[in-house]
Amino acid sequence: AQSVAQPEDQVNVAEGNPLTVKCTYSVSGNPYLFWYVQYPNRGLQFLLKYITGDNLVKGSYGFEAEFNKSQTSFHLKKPSALVSDSALYFCAVRRGSSGTYKYIFGTGTRLKVLA
Amino acid sequence: EPEVTQTPSHQVTQMGQEVILRCVPISNHLYFYWYRQILGQKVEFLVSFYNNEISEKSEIFDDQFSVERPDGSNFTLKIRSTKLEDSAMYFCASKGEQETQYFGPGTRLLVL
Questions:
Q1: Which of A5, A6, A97, B18 has its CA 20 to 30 A from that of A21?
Q2: Which stretches within chain B are classed as H helix?
Q3: Exposure b/e, A5-44, CB count within 10 A at least 16 = b
Q4: Rounded Cα distance, B10 and B7, in Å
Q5: Chain A partners of B35 at a C-beta cutoff of 8 Å?
Q6: Coil, helix or strand for B27?
Q7: Chain A: which residues have CB within 8 Å of chain B?
Q8: A-to-B residue pairs, Cβ atoms closer than 8 angstroms
Q9: CB contact under 8 A, A103 and B35
Q10: Tens digits of residue pLDDT in A59-87
């Protein structure tokens, strides 16, 4: 069954340093992978997705993610973290057929960027 | 930029009462979803809706839950007799022909 795992509950990084938020997936067939961010008391905002094509996907707010088939990973990255990036990040995989896909979310990783 | 909206933002209710959570999806989207998130935890799928019927539902979505698209713009989630464990943040999402689901800001439901 399709699933994703986020092995880290929290990631701390200093402002200006590169950040990585990890996600691994388990799917049958080609994965459709997504990253969302949740700021306090807010909904989920779409960051980026991998469907097909280049393994390096660029998204909103300077984030990017690298799809690695051999390692079944889809880690979220940013070259230089901002304090405003502090939020809860969710990795998700599409599950389902036809047009009605649902998302299966990971448990979330809280990113804390320290000034 | 079009967005998904949800009302109310917060709802407090007594156990056993009925609640209706409302969502206005993005106007040209055809696929609609409800998810919930128990405080700070994982986001869980509840139900998907397409062509005026439920496409899929999770084990959470029991007989106490129902969804409706009453007028072509609103998409509602009804909980007939709320339980304490229904307290959560409920997110509506919609999707067009692309793969991306767009989420509303959520309704925080507190059952006392």
A1: A97
A2: none
A3: ebebeebebeeeeebebbbbbebeeebbbbbbbbeeeebb
A4: 8
A5: 103
A6: coil
A7: 32, 34, 36, 42-46, 49, 51, 88, 90, 92, 94, 96, 99-108
A8: 61
A9: yes
A10: 999 999 999 999 999 999 999 999 999 99
CB contact under 8 A, A44 and B95: no
Q: What 8-state DSSP symbol labels residue A85?
A: G
Provide the token pair at B73.
Answer: 């713009």
- In order of A26, A47, A55, A68, A104, the CA distances from A52 in angstroms are 16, 16, 8, 12, 19
The rounded distance, in Å, linking the Cα atoms of A77 and A63 is 6
Which tokens hold the place of B48?
A: 């998907």
